[in-house]
Amino acid sequence: MRILLLLFLAGAAVAQAPSSYKPYASLADIMAGISLPKSNSVFDVTKRAPKDDMEWVAVQTDAAVLAEAGNLILTPGRLKENGQPVPQTADFRRHVQALVEAAKGAHKAALKKDADAVFVACEPLYQACYSCHQAYRFCPTCQAATRQ
Ligand code: HEC
Q: What is the pTM of this model?
């Protein structure tokens, strides 16, 4: 019985964990601090292939962190630079998912140390940035208070 109670309490603590984290950085910070430099690291492979294991590991970790950025973008309570909440709609989440999948593809290619495969993975990665920006960054109403 005591064990069951402990298990129950542990379960409750785990279930509450996500909401106890309060995001601090704005979406613009995540973009400028993670999305841009980490994707550049991946895009750079198309200009110059990593020359040794150390350089490949850098690309591998950058791609993995870029995939992880999806979780940061969607953390409840995250705000945009203008103070409005980051959208949580199905459409916005679809764009985030496209970024995560593209970054995972780049990560897998980098793990194989295959510069040609990284090149192929860059296309969906670029598309993910571009299409979300068209819909949520540069659209006439995206920075307005009403857009969620
Ligand atoms: C799911 C949607 C989405 C995806 C995917 C996305 N962005 Fe963004 N990005 C935004 C939004 C929205 C803003 C505006 C942020 C704000 O107002 O706080 C932004 C802003 C930016 C900025 C400007 C930051 C600043 O300091 O003002 C950069 C740079 C950027 N994104 C780069 C990227 C790159 C590179 C990728 C792809 C690897 C990417 N983004 C993918 C939605 C997205």
A: 0.88
